[in-house]
Amino acid sequence: MGHTIGKSFTFEASHQLPGLPEGHKCGRLHGHNYSIEVTLAADGLVEPGFVTDFGDLAPFKSYLEETFDHRHLNDAMVTAPTSENLAECLAGWFISNVEPEIPGTLVAVRVSETPSSWAEYRPGRES
Ligand SMILES: Nc1nc2c(c(=O)[nH]1)N=C([C@H](O)[C@H](O)COP(=O)(O)OP(=O)(O)OP(=O)(O)O)CN2
Ligand SMILES: [Zn+2]
Questions:
Q1: What residue numbers bound the domain in which 10 lies?
Q2: 32 labelled binding-site residue
Q3: What atom of ligand 1 comes closest to residue 83's alpha carbon?
Q4: Which residues contact 12 (CB under 8 A, 6 or more apart)?
Q5: Is residue 29 situated within a structural domain?
Q6: Backbone φ and ψ of 30, nearest 5°
Q7: Which amino acids does the record list as binding Zn(2+) (predicted)?
Q8: Is 8 within the bounds of a domain?
């Protein structure tokens, strides 16, 4: 696919990671200013020259605000609230709820808990 675009979203949430060694700081209750970036791609553009109108991603913004913002991720997710699991969870929701309504295809969801770290999920596609 020749064209790619990205859009970032943010929310604040708490989490407490299970299964870590005794004394690991991330086993304690703490929070992050999460940054979520979605990357979309398309071979061709739709008028007036978009992969997807950034405004058409508003439902994803609403989903993040309603489901995750100022919430405890351990309660909002069925898997351990790591960046990797959150990226996969968000990609699944995007593919089910946003992608059918837009011309672009989801390439990746990137989750950053801090400015220095990220995890990215790239959905496998049936060929
Ligand atoms: N692969 C992953 N490793 C870690 C995750 C994760 O989701 N995936 N998460 C955490 C914790 O949530 C932690 O709060 C963030 O980790 P870390 O980058 O170590 O936090 P700091 O910003 O404090 O890092 P410093 O560079 O040491 O300041 C841990 N690991
Ligand atoms: Zn954390």
A1: 3-121
A2: yes
A3: 7
A4: 31, 32, 33, 34, 69, 70
A5: yes
A6: -155, 175
A7: 15, 30, 32
A8: yes
Give yes or no for residue 38 having a pLDDT over 80.
yes
Mutate to test the pocket of ligand 1, among 117, 120, 121 (most ligand atoms within 8 A of CB): 117
H helical segments located in 1-127: 58-67, 73-76, 83-97
Q: Model confidence over 1-24: pLDDT tens digits? A: 799 999 999 999 999 999 999 999
CATH of the domain at 86: 3.30.479.10
What is the pTM for the complete model shown? 0.96
Nearest ligand 1 atom to the CA of 81 is: 7
- The residues carrying an active-site annotation are 26, 70, 113
26: CB partners within 8 A, 6+ apart: 16, 17, 20
Whether residue 34 lies inside any domain: the answer is yes
85 lies in some domain: yes
State how many domains the chain has: 1
